[in-house]
Design brief:
51% helix, 4-stranded antiparallel β-sheet, 7-stranded mixed β-sheet, flat, alpha+beta
Length: 770
Amino acid sequence: MSDFLLELRSEEIPARMQAGARAELEKLFRREMDAAGVTAGEITVWSTPRRLALIARGLPEATEAVSEELKGPPVGAPDQAIEGFCRKAGVDKGALETRDVKGRATYFAVKNVPGRATKDLLAEAIPAIIRDFSWPKSMRWGAASISTESLRWVRPLSGIVALLGDDVVECEVHGVTSGSVTLGHRFHHSGDITIGNADDYAMKLRAGHVIVDHEERQDLIRSGAAKVASEAGLKLVEDEGLVIENAGLTEWPVPLLGRFEEDFLEVPPETIQLTARVNQKYFVCEDEAGELANAFICTANIEAEDGGARVVDGNRKVLAARLSDARFFWEVDRKKTLAEHAKGLERITFHEKLGTVADKVERVAKLAEWLASEGIVPNCDPKLARQAAELCKADLVTEMVGEFPELQGLMGGYYARAEGLPDPVADAIRDHYKPVGQGDQVPTAPLTVAVSLADKLDTLAAFFAIDEKPTGSKDPFALRRAALGVLRLVLNNSIRTNLSDVLGAAKTGAITSMMFAQVRAVNKDAYEALERVGVDLEDDATFDLEEQALDKGMGPIMADAEQKMAGDLGLLDFFADRLKVQQREAGVRHDLIDAVFALGGEDDLVRLLARVKALQSFMDTEDGANLLAGYKRAANILKKEDWHGAEGEIARTGEEDPLSQVDDPDMRAVVEAKMAERHAKELSYEAEPAEKALMDALAKSEPAASQAIEAEDFSGAMAALAALRAPIDRFFDEVTVNAEEENKRAHRLDLLAAFRAAVHKVADFSRIEG
């Protein structure tokens, strides 16, 4: 067994590409070894800005000889078939053997594949790995680059080290010949470094001031940055992404602390941190009070003789220039109020079918005000909700957000506070995008909740209105994230409202806006003329455009808008799916969410989840499991008999089917229960004990469950259902449902229908798995 070392050296590999390159190198190496029948042991892959390295332990010296058999056509088959088989197997017809297969002579090709030296296999594998390597971006270079067939690599490939044990694996790629010689640090080492084998590779490179293990460099940066900050009486602001990036930029990392002018701290701290991080790859520090300090930590790639003083000074000057730009943006932006900035949103298209960002802001403002005035978001001032919503996107046209889009919302909050707007308004502007991701903080301030909810609800309703729904893995408008944000806002703040109501309000605003956007597009001059004479079309969603629009070719637009107004955009189903995804991590079963949603009319998310969780606790008990079994048995009988609880009534009285005009699921359940109660009173025979027991249990459990649900005592509702478990089991054990007597059969089927209706008070058990 021998260890194999492969180093591919090039000009600087971008830090962001190195993790993917390590994975790609291992994948391609394994592919080549698997194809050659070589089993590799432990594989280690390292990267620096100038090299990729792979070490594979325990490779065999050679592969074993093998014999392969391929079954061909039967003797007597057409010559064309036999010749095709020979070509596929790579043998002559005379070399074929015949064997008996189920009494028929059949051709076989037998190939003896001799063993090969692993060194020879590697010599073929290395060029294949390099040629097939996939980079996000790559280039050609040199004289050969005039041909499209020339090698592409992330940067010009300059060296290959390939050693199996102590021996060089000889190969050549694009004029680069393999060997045992590499180079050390660009500044700290001159001359060649000769590698003996895989075991001394990292050690010899370290002697040449190269730490080849990227994880070791990350540890050095992480601990070194914290150390220099501590020595200055400061605390490092941890940033793991920056640690990885700096490790990808250096082969010999040395963290150094520098200072910038204190007056830059007048700029919002997030701006300073983002400037340092994005533009310069610097860490920042906090003082003992947790405030941003006028300090930065850069990662040098050299160990300077002066302790890094010149390096720090150079970096300080570059950072000062960047911070000067940030301060300039901060000062220029504050010369306008947010309301003045917001006027610029009229020039930004939100979506061609939905108008401008200003149009969206107006929709969000109306919706936020409505959420507050209706008490859906409690303790929220409607006027402040509208004000915050009208200004929440204004910072999109500021200089600072133009330079740093990541600061949208955050800068709006700073500008609002700087001009003296109320703190709740500034906070709502700052945080209205939240929650953005799963780990993001969920707002709790009423004003912020109202604006954040309105923004996300409008986005969902608007894009569903124009049929831009997520498909498969594609979600270009982040609608799944918006829906999860709505769910977290509602559940974390215990907002009591029917989701269909707030979605309906959002839908009305979105479709009205869409209609007017299309009207503008059809006849911009006519629209502007109406506005000039004082008609504010968008302020009155009920304004009848139809008469004025028909002669302008706008009739189809109006018809389409009316159809969408009345239609179901599928948003409730979309939310149900997102709720199942969100709750799966909390251990809530998706089928139970379906079972409660299927009842219809239950889209108060707080109440729905309370019901689902009570149902899940109940289904985990023996009573729950047995009741489900009884329900499924009853449902199967009713389905087989096509019995809906009304046929027996019609047969006995000749009355019209009382369920024929009942569409609402809850009302159907009430009618079925009343019919069963009526049938019980009109019995023309003496009920059997088990039959009577089920009737008595239903008479108690059904109203008890209803009252408990009305009081939102879902555990109590489950307890009421649990009382049906024993009677339904006894009923199936002792009673013949399909009795010969018609009156008995009808009553017993009605009784099962009443049992099903009672269970449906809590959930649609047909949706529950198990």
